[in-house]
Amino acid sequence: MTRQVSRPQLEANRSRLLQSFQGQRWLSEPSGRDGGLDIEDFVQLPGEASPFVLTLLRVHGSGNRYFVPLRVTLSAGQEAQLSDASYDAGFITALLQCMREQRTLTTEKQRALHCRAQAPSPGAPALEVTPFKVDMSSNCLSELRHGEERWVCKLYKRLSTDGGNELRALQLLAGSGLAPELLGSITYEDGAGLQALGALTALVEGEPIYLPLSRHIKALIAQVVAAPGEVSPLTRNGLAELEPLCRRLGEQLLLFHQRLNQGASTGEPALFQLAPYLDTHRARWERLHAAVEQDASLPAPLRASVLRQLQRVSNALLAPGKLRHLPPLPATIAHGDLHLSHILVAASEGGAPRLSILDVSPRSLDAQAPAFLTQTVLQDLLSLLRAIQYFAFDEILDGIKDVLGNTQLEATRLVLENPASLPPSCQAQLTVLSDWSKGLFGCIERAYLRAFERGTALDIHPSHARLFYVCRLLQELEYNYSYNRGFFKYCDFYYLLHLEGLE
């Protein structure tokens, strides 16, 4: 039986606990994870025998906070062994019980942890808990089943300064069919307000949109390898098959943006603030430039090419005052991290595919907050273009490495360093990479813009589009450097080196 867990028992395990988190991407300090772990606050789930403790953690000296549920196992000598319980079925069952009972738990620091849910009362059949995927990401997802009803329990491990944004966004989208319906929440209340720790949503049927796209592009690659001279007509025909799905995505994304912004509207829209946005990305550029300079794994010619292109990016887009000529742009609420795994597609009786958008994470929904003024729906569009490019690059390089008989990373290096040496079928696949990505995104973008009502069309200035595209690329490249994601680092180099319009 587990008795009440004390702070000294938790403190005694801090170093071992931090060591067990090494390599997990939800931990935001990849270069400083040996700095020690601070336990900011904690609360044990009710029940005399409950082995579960909800903890708020911070790496020593860091501004980032984490929510990690722990299973506590006490030895005969009352020494506590701690383990991450994020995917533990027993923990999630106990947490849902607290949510059903609308409990507010009082933490060690006399703060409130609110558990709220619209869920059935306990009873047969018993709750079934199945993790979707046990991985290292910043959110932990589990499917809950109670009879014929199914939900998703989502726990936020890495906590943001605007931690309730997804909960508020889902409330704005309620009843729209564009996102999962919010059924419950777990929030932590301190002097600064409410911090979201988790959400309970209805389960959305469907598969991530990258799966049908993968089936399509794999078939196209096989055709192109067999007939490299026919690459252009084969790609055009393939894109024509995807046009209904692309149109639907463009239209649904516009409805998603409109619903978010209309629901949160408080009057005249504020203008996007370019200066702080550029400040953030100039700082990111400086970190990346230094990382590339020090990257001994890069061949010298490639490193020199990347550094030259980074300098062109800085001169053309990030230099102070360089983009003063741009027309005013409204600050608008966006998804915040749109990529293909966040879009589910399912068949519907009417024939048109049914789409749902997951993991809504706007930078801010508070029009008075500085973060609100550096977001725009255009960022979602350009993030989606980057997502399509990532996806297509992964699929195409998988096809090229099969032709060459080497690894995907070896094939990627060859594509970057000596593309002229590739055989015709590989050259044809690189043509597919360019044309398919551009064609797919172009169809989505056209549908998005066509769906605007007459007189309210979105004016996408080419310099705005280039800026948001490049800044997303820099963000992803920094992430890939931080977590040693070699293949995706090379993918970013490929698109960085193929940037146009920087002179």
UniProtKB/TrEMBL annotation:
Entry annotated with the keyword Transferase: yes
Extent of the signal sequence: none
Keyword Transferase: yes
Occurrences of domain Aminoglycoside phosphotransferase (ranges): 140-349
Keywords: Transferase
Cited Pfam families: APH
A GO MF term: transferase activity
InterPro entries: Aminoglycoside_PTrfase, Kinase-like_dom_sf
Protein name (record): Phosphotransferase enzyme family protein
Organism: Stigmatella erecta
